[in-house]
Amino acid sequence: MELKAVGYEVDDPSYFVERAKPYKDALPILLKYIPLVEETFEKDVLIRASSVKGNYQAVPVLLDEYKKSSNESLMWTIGNALWLIGDQTIVGQLIELLESNIKVDQLPDNMPEGLQSPEKAAKETLLWALGKTRDPKAIPVLKKYLQVEGLEGHALEGLKYFKDPDLIPFVTPLLTHQKSWVRKNAERFIKSLKRQINMHELCKKLNVACQMPSDETLVAVSEGVFEGDLVQGVRYKMEAHMSGWIITSDRYNGDVSTLRTEHMKHIFEHRPDLVKYLCLPIGWRFDTSRDDFWFDQEII
Predict the structure, then answer these.
(1) Which burial class, exposed, middle or buried, applies to 158 when counting CB atoms under 10 A from its CB (0-12, 13-18, 19+)?
(2) What is the second-level CATH architecture of the domain 3-196?
(3) Which residues are registered as beta bridge partners of 220?
(4) What phi and psi, each to the nearest 5 degrees, are found at residue 261?
């Protein structure tokens, strides 16, 4: 490989699989070798090393490799790579793959019972990638796979990218699924969808646009917020990874260095009483001691 030419004193692409630091200049080289190598393990390593968010140049190669492969494990890795890369323009190709009758190498007859069939296992990660496109055309396909035994939980993982309360009736049957991880994920998803209903009701009442923060955005909080104290909140315009919310209690001394950031999903979980306020747009405040909320022009 030509990795040394771009500053990497390695010949083994597995070096990049667990590497935390960016290696953008190595990606074209790794991608070049994916269709050239024939050994499954080597191809798998190259694909994993290329599974970098935003590495869109790899998507056509990965889709082609998926179509050519009959190895369930490699196909799973390819779907996982497409999910991690997050190309939102390939919904059509993903739907085509999910609706096709793929040919996968079969497991030996002496394999333990209870394993996922190869055909289904090869589609698990495609369902994640399909959901991550956030394209409405993905919803009917994901809903259909909620009915496919063995893939219900993976279809649910895809649907979790859509914050649509109309999905509740389709997910509710999974609350009694035989697998605990599917039941738990269904319960969490339904709770999150019900939060959407509460949020939208307040925005509708105030006639303002609902700006719901995602689970992974960050919120700045003071001591006392997670302890259940009465709190005040204000929403500023911030960078994309921040929700904009700063939530403080009377324990806050005014020193911003004492604030800590938490993922919004933890607020949803530990402070459900605050949920109804958190879709309010930039410029709004709330105070739970008075159950009051208002727009502050000075924040804009």
Answers:
(1) buried
(2) Alpha Horseshoe (1.25)
(3) 246, 261
(4) -100, 140
